[in-house]
Write the structure tokens for this entry.
Amino acid sequence: MSFLRVFRRGNETPVEKLARKCGKMPMTLPIVLQNNDIATNVLYAVKNMMTVDDPTIVIQWNDPGFNDVPAMPGCRNGVAGQTKNAIVTVFTTNRGTDIKGLNTVFLFKTNDDLGQCENNLPQWSRHQNGIPDVCVSAVVVHKLTLSGQIDVAPFDYAFNQNR
């Protein structure tokens, strides 16, 4: 019997349900999707907001990446304005929708919109040697079918992470 059929759907955690919709086992999901709160937000987007082929990015932020200068907490490199909210604003001003306003899941209507947004990320948000990255993990989610089957791909390159 397949692992994905062992769970009764009523007993699934959000991570287990998301894994089933991806055709994966929970521990093989990208780390950002192994969080029940994030998985709940992604499942909401898939069910209620996404159409087939909509790209959605999911970001697991890394707070130390915004707190590398103790005198300026929340500001990357200690520069006012270099904040998580500034990156969120890039997403939303480039046609991304912040799902539930939680600054974690961002829905785009086309791959071109997502690509343009990625091109517009500020240089300071990208990987810098010796400074923690602003993002632990990021993925792109595509809704493949009307029934909610989804595909997940890495999106860490948006922040040029050296892993």
